[in-house]
Amino acid sequence: MFMTSVAAFAHSIEAQVDRRIIVAIAEKPDAIAGSGSSARGYAGLPDYAGSQRTRAAARRIADAHGLVEIAAWTIEPLQLRCMLYEVPASSSREEMLDRLRADRRVKLAEPLREYTTLNAVRVDSLPAEASASNTSRFNDPYAALQSGFSVIDAARAQQWATGKHVSVAVIDTAVDATHPDLQGQVVEQRDFAGDAVPVQASERHGTEVAGVIAALANNRIGIVGVAPAASIHAFRACWSSPQDAASARCNSFTLAQALAAAIQSRAQIINLSLGGPRDPLLDELLGRAVAAGQIVVAALPADPALNGFPTTLDGVIGVRTINQSHAGGATVVSAPGIDILTLEPGGSFDYASGSSLAAAHVSGTIALLLQASPDVDAERALGLLRNSSTIPGDAINACMALRLQMNQAGVSCTDTRQPGAGHERG
User: Fold this and answer.
1) FRET pair for 215, CA 20 to 30 Å: which of 54, 58, 109, 334?
2) Helix or strand run (H / E) with residue 387
3) pTM of the model as a whole
4) Catalytic annotation present for 172
5) Can you tell me the mean pLDDT for 70-93?
6) Distance between CA 235 and CA 170 in Å, rounded?
């Protein structure tokens, strides 16, 4: 029996993945009735389920190789039909992949890979916590406690821009769009983990990331986002562990769907506060996003051995926490990621740590840059962010980046060389 809905896949999402594979074939639209050859094209719907012709081809492949289809979905930007199959007990997964890769009908055959959100980092001994400054212009009661917001000088940066008319796709766990500090900020929500993996009240990582980026300013509630007027497209591809709500995991099937949705949303920025192994399908999707001019921001894992997707891909801006031992390369910048006050589901606020939060600071800063100068691309944004730090490896300075882009030489920004500035408390 074939189950083709994402919800069906979710019933087994917690199962072991060592028998699961992803197979992709070309999506071939059905011919228009009476024409015999003219393609009718795609319906343009995000949940387009594939043509009858392609679904029949997928069934033939499954029958030929003894595979059981768990779920299937059409990745419209790549014109591929992707199937999640379970390998029968009579075959090893590697043997099955070898056979499928030799099948001319198959465009891609890969193991189902797992990914995790980057919630915690190992850091060196750090100097004293930076003092919050220049937050008196906000009536948000916890603004003065936002050390990361202060370190990157976001308050002064907001004299030029607040992220208005800029959209950020957050691929993560669920985002609590009902949070009082996110009211009206989330313009789209889609769940690719499936209804059978319900969002837990404790599932918080996506809300934490969205809060750093776009929490409302001057609403007399909570905190201030780096880009408080930016719009959030929330794509749930990850889910929390029942044993540890602070951590979350995803896989290449859910991430592929979320990336395709982010491409179709045309969000100017894609925030990926997660990491895992390289995967050809995810690489191709991310390459398509970069080629379309979307700026991809990704968290750098603390362990260099885990550095794979997405930070090693060309065109991606990687983000490490300040003083993180894994420095990354020329396309990596630093931002605050320790004891960051942010939003929690259910209208709450709390501190969180990890390069996930550092990436969110950078996504928010780029949203400010894009409002000020819509033609800023990833290369230009990376240059501005790197040049905004007066000390190599120190935190980005949002005010300085805006000042450099807008040629506002006479405007004062916080000097990150001052004692305690640009550093975090471990």
Assistant:
1) 334
2) helix 378-388
3) 0.88
4) yes
5) 93
6) 6
